[in-house]
């Protein structure tokens, strides 16, 4: 099957649907520019440039509507679903400090806010989709029986992505998690994000353009060098994957961004000086891939098959499944695994 390698040239202009907005919490972000006419020449010249600008995440001053409310133009405006964005933890004593600034918000909440703002600014026809089990039961929110943990998930689709899942878990000092997964409509790798903090000190942060086929050339565009250029900028995110959960690297790229930090101070430095800017760059780079790829019906079918294989592989090995079972009950965790985290997985694996 022959697949297009054609790529767009951005020449420094913003991505589609970029528009100014008033925000409160300010994070540094980068904008993609390319001076290549196609991806192969980009690989040869490696003239990938990230030009900086200021970008601010969503805040309480931004207009919000319920998650199921969609504007007439089809764009999701925002969310107050289950009190989002959370400004305090489920643990009322929870605090964390960095650079002499103390905050009560769940640790990874800024990543949720930034991604939601990014999607609303850059994706076309962004709209929410239900987060339900195969039996139609709402799976978007759960609280542990002991009231010490809560989890919230939103899902979206756009012209560029068939599904985007965002999940945040808040268990106070015990556990903080942000996880997201982008499924492009084109025959491209999925973009996976897993950021975890345990006992207010240990951090494990993983971001990757995860292949859905065995070979890079089986995807619509090459992506390893694009991700590798980002990875090279962040030395704390250059660790190697162990085989504790994933014995093989079937659905991981050669340039996975992976960082571990054993202490609180090291973890905070890694997250705010390296993980956050790398996360911002990866969001833009993956979106650029979706804009570069051309998709035929055959390619879309091929992509769906690859995404189903990816979900089946991931559901069988997901390290969070056991933890979710302990927090929210095994039956709920099973449904969440197969119907929310990896909805294309083959259920016969249960």
Descriptive terms for the model:
350 residues, alpha+beta, 7 helices, 24% strand
Shape: globular
Beta-strand residue percentage:
15-25%
N-to-C SSE string, H for helix and E for strand: EHEEEHEEEEEEEHEHHHH
Spans of 5+ residues with little confidence (pLDDT < 50)?
Answer: 1-78
Describe this structure in words.
It is a single chain. By secondary structure, the chain is an alpha+beta fold. It has helices at 39-45, 109-122, 224-231, 264-292, 297-317, 320-328, 330-341; strands spanning 25-34, 48-57, 96-98, 101-103, 127-129, 141-143, 150-157, 161-170, 175-184, 190-198, 202-210, 257-261. Strands 5, 6, 7, 8, 9, 10, 11 and 12 form an 8-stranded antiparallel β-sheet that branches. It is globular and about 55 Å long. The model is unreliable at 1-78 (pLDDT under 50).
